Amino acid sequence: MSATIRPFGMLREYLRGEKEARVEGGQTVRQALASLGIPPEVVALVLVNDQPQEKDYVLQEGDVVKILAVIGGG
């Protein structure tokens, strides 16, 4: 059972430029991010199947998770 993580913007750097990564279902988004080396605190928005979700959402088979980073400036 797997889900797909699709990072956008600077978060792709954590996947060494890859557009997506497969992760095991049955874990939370937060756990999946950590398994990929992505600090959950740098993720501002999580969309699962194009619907906003919390990082405690438990991934299901076939879920597509889009993640966007916190944007800073100054």
Descriptive overview:
It is a single chain. The chain is mainly beta and 74 residues long. It has a single domain, classed as Beta-grasp domain (Ubiquitin-like (UB roll), Roll). Helix content is 9%, strand content 32%. The chain has one helix and five strands; from the N terminus they run ββαβββ. The chain has one helix at 29-35, and strands at residues 2-7, 21-24, 43-48, 51-52, 64-69. A five-stranded mixed β-sheet has the order 2-1-5-3-4, covered by helices on one side. The model has no long low-confidence stretch (mean pLDDT 94).
* Beta-strand content estimate: 25-35%
Question: Which CATH class applies here?
Answer: Alpha Beta
CATH homologous superfamily annotation: Beta-grasp domain
Number of helices: 1
Give the N-to-C terminal Cα separation: 42 Å
SSE arrangement, N to C: EEHEEE
Structural Rg: 11 Å
How many structural domains in the coordinates? 1
Number of strands: 5
Helix content: under 10%
| Overall pLDDT score | 94
CATH architecture: Roll
Shape: globular
Given as residue ranges, the uncertain stretches (5+ residues, pLDDT < 50) are none
The structure class reads mainly beta
Describe the secondary-structure layout.
Elements: E1 2-7, E2 21-24, H1 29-35, E3 43-48, E4 51-52, E5 64-69
Parallel strand pairs: 1-5
Antiparallel strand pairs: 1-2, 3-4, 3-5
Give a concise summary.
This protein has 74 residues and is mainly beta. Helices cover 9% and strands 32% of the residues.
